[in-house]
């Protein structure tokens, strides 16, 4: 997973999480590797052509509930239609409905479904990230990666990119 803090482009910090598995007590810290903040060094990672036409926007409290539910799950599959977003793994599933105002979904036509994969590990990181913002936005990229955007204000946002699994 690649994490960037984008502030008035170019990014000021680029972190790649490696072996970020949390123990059962969730008290251990995750391992990260600081990478160069020069965008040219990571053009393939931080400029991966986000498809801004289709998206899911989730209130941060609702997103924290999803993170907590999948806290010990490495791979979470996300299925998005024009009416709902479904987070699933072999053991559980959470559905957020646009009709019930649990999420905002845009750019997906009736009968269309987009799919991508995310990881919410380390859960502590994602809980703290979402506590800093009002909403979390999920996007797909042109190369089938997925990205989570967490805007802090009009000048800064956290962006987490996920590799193709």
What does this entry look like structurally?
By secondary structure, the chain is mainly β. It has a domain of 103 residues: Proliferating Cell Nuclear Antigen, CATH 3.70.10.10. It is 14% helix and 42% strand. The chain contains three helices and twelve strands; from the N terminus they run E-E-E-H-E-H-E-E-E-E-E-H-E-E-E. About 18% of the residues have low confidence.
Short précis:
This protein has 165 residues and is mainly β. It contains three helices and twelve strands; from the N terminus they run E-E-E-H-E-H-E-E-E-E-E-H-E-E-E.
Key terms for this structure?
single chain; 165 residues; mainly beta; Proliferating Cell Nuclear Antigen; eight-stranded antiparallel beta sheet; four-stranded antiparallel beta sheet; 12 strands
Largest sheet: 8 strands, antiparallel
- From N to C, what is the helix and strand string? EEEHEHEEEEEHEEE
Percent helix among the residues?
10-25%
How are the strands of the biggest sheet laid out side by side? 3-2-1-12-11-10-4-8
Q: Give the class from helix and strand content and strand pairing.
A: mainly beta
User: What is the strand tally?
Assistant: 12
CATH topology of the domain at 51-153: Proliferating Cell Nuclear Antigen
Rg of Cα set:
15 Å
* Large-scale geometry: globular
Oligomer: single chain
CATH architectural grouping of the domain at 51-153 = Box
């Amino acid at each position: 997973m690649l994490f960037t803090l984008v502030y008035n482009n170019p990014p000021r910090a680029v972190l790649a999480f490696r072996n970020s598995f949390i123990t059962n007590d969730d008290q251990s810290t995750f391992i990260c590797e600081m990478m160069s903040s020069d965008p040219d060094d990571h053009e393939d990672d931080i400029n991966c052509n986000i498809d801004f036409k289709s998206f899911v926007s989730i209130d941060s409290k609702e997103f924290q509930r999803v993170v907590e539910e999948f806290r010990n799950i490495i791979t979470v599959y996300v299925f998005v239609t024009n009416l709902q977003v479904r987070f699933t793994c072999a053991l559980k599933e959470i559905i957020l409905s646009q009709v019930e105002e649990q999420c905002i979904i845009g750019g997906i036509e009736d009968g269309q479904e987009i799919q991508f994969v995310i990881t919410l590990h380390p859960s502590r990181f994602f809980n703290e990230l979402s506590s800093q913002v009002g909403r979390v936005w999920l996007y797909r990229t042109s190369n089938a990666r997925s990205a989570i955007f967490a805007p802090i204000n009009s000048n800064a946002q956290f962006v987490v990119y996920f590799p193709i699994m």
